[in-house]
Amino acid sequence: DKSIKEVIKPVSGNLDLAPSNLDLAGAELGIISQMGREYILQRALGDLNGYDLSIIDCPPSLSMLVINSIVASDAVLIPTQLMPVDVTGVRRFMETVREARKRLNTGVEILGIVPTFYDSRYNAHQAALDAMRAANYPVLDVAIGRSVRVGEAAALGESVITFEPNNPQSENYKELGKVIKSWLKKTR
């Protein structure tokens, strides 16, 4: 039962990380029975000062931990693969965000959907993108493609941007960063 301040680790000059561990998987059970359970993360993050941006990485589920993240957020970025089951999951997730907006956090917005493991040569990927755009989903113009080097960088605990700066996915991540930075400027 550590506070968020106690788990933060400096990564670089302007980047800190509050790493997760397997104990978080068991936290779901403890959260369910608590009064005000949807606001636990929001209260924990409220103790932090001096950060311009907090990114909360969540598993692809609609668990109480994910609901806590939506409630604690100003915006939600939705990474998704582009297979039919993934598009269905995105729809359900967006419904959950809209419901949370009505009942728990009126200020949360959907920043956009980021296609991941994208390969323009796959008809299924293009069809999924077309379907999401036809349904007026907020699909960003940035897509993160499939790359062995991204996986290698992650396995070493490093960003692909520093691991292999000239990798096309490094450029895509930089473009995604520009989208987030632009959103930050609009909201501040």
What does this structure look like?
The protein has nine helices and five strands, in the order αββαααβαβαβααα. β4, α6 (123-134) and β5 form a beta-alpha-beta unit. It has 188 residues and is an alpha/beta fold. The protein has a three-stranded parallel beta sheet with strand order 3-4-5. The chain has a two-stranded antiparallel ribbon with strand order 1-2.
Sum up the structure in keywords:
188 residues; alpha/beta; 3-stranded parallel beta sheet; two-stranded antiparallel ribbon; 9 helices; globular
Biggest sheet character: 3 strands, parallel
| Counted beta strands | 5
* Percent strand: 5-15%
Q: Give me the oligomer status.
A: single chain
Low-confidence segments, ≥5 residues, pLDDT <50?
none
| Rg from alpha-carbon coordinates | 17 Å
> How many helices does DSSP assign?
9
Mass-distribution shape: globular
Q: SSE order in H/E notation? A: HEEHHHEHEHEHHH
Mean pLDDT, nearest integer?
89
Q: Based on helices, strands and strand pairing, what is the structural class? A: alpha/beta
